[in-house]
Amino acid sequence: MEKVTIKRMDDFERDVREEAAAVFIDGYYKDLSFFSKDRTTLQKAIRHAFCEDVYYLAEWEGEVVGILACSTNQSRAMKVNKREIVDALGFLKGSFAYSMLSRELHPPLHYPDDTGYIECVATTSESRGKGVASALVNHVIDHLHFSTYILEVVDTNTNAHRLYKKLGFTEYKRKKERFGKMKGFRERIYMRFEC
């Protein structure tokens, strides 16, 4: 996609939380559809959670088409709020979604100060395969000043794994996933890029 512009989320002059939530849900719908098949309900459940100072958004023709967070050992990508999620999804599913998301997104990262952790990469289905994710990753590497970038990808996401290898990331560890069959993947693959 030509003329994709990338900005940090808190640099937008308009509120882009709803747009970012739509892209997040589009990218992770398979994983989140257990909680609701309605994308608007899912967006409502997570639109509050973005930490705007670590998110980078790709915009094309005035529309947000991709998101990426570059977290640190000081700040993660999302801080989910149980009340917001329960209000959107109901008590049972909301409580379970909060438990799952907070376990995934809240723990601090135990990486050195000079390491950026790329997470929550997603693009709209219409923009997939058009260079949006590559542009986001390259933007972060070119504009932030970390000496190392780390990311993880699940073994079933072969397109993302192939993309990260193409961008120069190398695999350094695999970790078997507990209850992997239920989650739909067997391993988490950890990859790094050294500047």
Automatic annotation (TrEMBL):
<dbReference type="Pfam" id="PF00583">
    <property type="entry name" value="Acetyltransf_1"/>
</dbReference>
<dbReference type="InterPro" id="IPR000182">
    <property type="entry name" value="GNAT_dom"/>
</dbReference>
<dbReference type="InterPro" id="IPR016181">
    <property type="entry name" value="Acyl_CoA_acyltransferase"/>
</dbReference>
<dbReference type="GO" id="GO:0016747">
    <property type="term" value="F:acyltransferase activity, transferring groups other than amino-acyl groups"/>
</dbReference>
<feature type="domain" description="N-acetyltransferase">
    <location>
        <begin position="1"/>
        <end position="195"/>
    </location>
</feature>
<dbReference type="InterPro" id="IPR050680">
    <property type="entry name" value="YpeA/RimI_acetyltransf"/>
</dbReference>
<keyword id="KW-0808">Transferase</keyword>
<protein>
    <submittedName>
        <fullName>GNAT family N-acetyltransferase</fullName>
    </submittedName>
</protein>
<keyword id="KW-0012">Acyltransferase</keyword>
